[in-house]
Amino acid sequence: MTILWAVVLFGLLIFFHELGHFILAKLVGVKVLKFSLGFGPKIIGRKIGDTEYVISAIPLGGYVKPLGEEAGEEIEEEEKKRAFNYQPVWKRMAIVVAGPVFNLVLAFLIFTVFLGMKLPVAIPDLDSITTTIDNVMEDSPAGAAGLQSDDTIVSINGTSVHEWNAMAEIFSESPGKELKLKVRRGENLIDITVTPKPTKARNEKGEDILIGRIGISKKMDAKVIESSSILTAPLKGIEAVYEWCVLTLEVVVRLFSGALSAKQIGGPILIVDAAAKAASVGAFTYFNFIAIISINLAILNLLPVPVLDGGHVVFLSIEALRGRPLNEKIMAGANKVGMALLLLLITFVFYNDIMRIIVPWVQKTLNQ
Predict the structure, then answer these.
(1) With the C-alpha atoms ordered 110, 313, 94, 14, is the resulting torsion angle positive or negative?
(2) Residue 18 is a catalytic residue
(3) In the CATH hierarchy, which fold is given to the domain comprising 128-218?
(4) Of 7, 162, 192, 353, which has the fewest beta carbons less than 10 angstroms from its beta carbon?
(5) 118 in the Ramachandran plot: left (φ > 0), alpha (ψ -120 to 50) or beta?
(6) pLDDT by residue (tens digit) across 218-260?
(7) Which one is catalytic: 18, 76, 78, 79?
């Protein structure tokens, strides 16, 4: 079932993104040669009108191929009026931007349905998902060790921690084991030793197990958006998309500034794992997760990096200012640099996914 939930998630994200490019191309009179969900070899396809609709083997993306998009493509004279590269800048930019915009549309539709059903949409405060302690319980291991409210746990046994759930999992898997913490208190870093208290619990199979608890809680600050009726749901849906866009941009800024660890970045493996977990909780959690990922995809696609939609927007903006397109060699070189950066990012997020999910799973399996 894990693969099924991941396929549905990636399928929706890719379909809406490429649908945006496709619809805008059709609206401004550009001929679309192919609409593909996925990359690589064709699994199934059918040509309807001018367009071949294809499902391809590798489901980690998709593309819309308009006539005249590739440099040096030979185009018959009568077809030039329908070719992408013969369109004015504003039309080409509209086609490019439409993909990310339709990812926002997908999130808007999901949020609006939830709000119309009087289900709230929560936007967390970014600081509330860090390892900063809100409250220390009385007579707890944390209290006995000297932990205080507003302390931030930086590392456990020399391993850096940046996210509350990952930190809590370490405590959970260490009942009765002494752990050495590095804690930031104000401007100072201090060392604290704590031993999680063994606590009875049940695992997913209903079996009795022992887990560790130290008696701390995290801040749960979040903006909650609600709708009083189905009539106000669309406006509230727009507000929810806007707030999540702001949060996503804040995360991007913190990543580039170093205020948030790059180890927090996840890729396809993490998304597959998270999708399965969200689906196991229920439809609301699963589709809420899809909406959030769709917003992330829209924002990241608009970053000014060559080969991404944002990079194309930069090229088109320069063309609009100059009155003529950039030299093809310059654009090709920029695209190669952008592709190299993208491949480095893909390698990095796969490494993060492996270290965060695969390695602990293997270790846990070997220890059983």
Answers:
(1) negative
(2) yes
(3) Pdz3 Domain (2.30.42)
(4) 7
(5) left
(6) 766 778 899 988 999 999 999 999 999 998 888 888 777 766 6
(7) 18
